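User: Hi! I'm working on a homework problem where we have to compare a predicted structure to a textbook description. Could you give me the structure for the chain below?
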Amino acid sequence: MTTRGLMLVLLLVAPPALAAELPHEVAEFVARRDRCDHFRGEDAENPARIREIQRGLRANCEGTDAALARLKQRFAGHAAARAVLDRYDDAVE
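Assistant: Happy to help. Predicted C-alpha cells:
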C-alpha cells in the first residue's frame, strides 16, 4: 500500500490529529485488519468470487489476532494507538 493510500485509510479510521499520532506499525495493522473485515463481511455464490474472498481472508486475516494482542501490549501507554486498536475484535481467525 502506498503512503497516500495508508493515510486515506487512517483518515477514515481516525480523526486527522489522531491519525498523525499513530505509530507506523499500528497504521499498517489498521489497513490490513480493515481489509480483513471487508472480506469477512462478504458473501458470494459465484465460485470464482468465493475463491477470491477466501484468498483475501488468508492474506489479510491470518495472524491478526496475535498481531492485535502484541500491538495492544506494546502500545499500552500510547492513548491514540490504544483508542484505535481497542475498536477491533480480539478473535477473528
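For your comparison, note the following. Residues 3-8 have pLDDT under 50 and may be disordered. Residues 3-85 form one domain. Good luck with the assignment!
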